[in-house]
Amino acid sequence: MRDFESDVLRRSLIKAGNMLGLSEVTLAGVIGIDITEMVNINIKSKEGKIAAYIIRIYIKLYSMLGGNQAHMVLWMNGFNIGTGGIPAEQIKDFEGVKEVLEYLESFP
Description:
The chain has 108 residues and is mainly α. Helix content is 64%, strand content 0%.
C-alpha cells in the first residue's frame, strides 16, 4: 500500500509539472528517479525535496501570472535574464531547481 504523503506529493508534482509544460518523464529525470519510481517518492528524501521545490516554482509562477498556464509554460521555456537561461533547461539538476526557485521567491 502506498503511503498517503507520497501519493499527495506525486499528484501535486504531476499537476505542477503539467501546468508548467513538463511531462512526467521530464519530472522524473529532474528529481533523479525512474518514471516507475514516482509512486514511491519519500517526502523526506532528496528526490522529495526537489519535487517540493518544483511545486513551489509552480505556486510562485501561478501567483505571479494569475494562473495563466500559457504564460507559465512560456516563462519556463523562454530565455530569462533574471535566471540567466531557460528555466525548463536550468531545472535539470538540483542546483538549477534551487536557483530558479530562489529567483522567483526574490519577488514579493
